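User: Hi! I have a protein structure encoded as tokens and I'd like to know what sequence might fold into it. I'm fairly new to this, so please keep things simple.
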């Protein structure tokens, strides 16, 4: 299996078939380049490495996305973190920790996004 196929398999396991199907449906000649890059480098190379588990990678992503205030990507990675075994309590602690190190406004946005995802899943 090549890195793009490996990356797509990891995305499927992390986000589900529906996410990947929607993404593929939106693929076109313009955005194909960045999708392939993500599949290859992000998921096929980095996420496939054995050094840390997927739950830890999800925790890191949430913290970085909150710090960078990237709420659209955060939504996807909160879903992935839950799929990777992150609990509601752990998400709350991650976001609270971000308030100290990334700032309250960023953490508040992170809480809003996570709350929406958790409500949609019936977890709060």
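Assistant: Happy to help. Inverse folding works backwards from shape to sequence: for each of the 124 positions I chose a residue that suits the local structure. Here it is:
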């Amino acid at each position: 299996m090549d890195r793009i196929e490996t990356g797509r398999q990891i995305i499927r396991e992390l986000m589900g078939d529906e996410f990947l199907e929607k993404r593929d449906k939106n693929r076109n000649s313009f955005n194909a380049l960045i999708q392939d890059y993500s599949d290859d480098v992000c998921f096929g190379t980095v996420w496939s490495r054995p050094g840390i588990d997927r739950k830890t990678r999800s925790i890191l992503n949430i913290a970085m996305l909150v710090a960078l205030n990237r709420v659209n990507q955060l939504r996807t990675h909160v879903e992935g973190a839950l799929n990777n075994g992150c609990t509601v309590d752990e998400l709350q602690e991650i976001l609270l920790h971000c308030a100290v190190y990334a700032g309250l406004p960023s953490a508040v946005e992170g809480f809003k996004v996570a709350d929406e995802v958790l409500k949609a899943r019936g977890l709060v």
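A useful reference point when you look it over: Residues 1-51 form one domain. Feel free to ask if any position seems puzzling.
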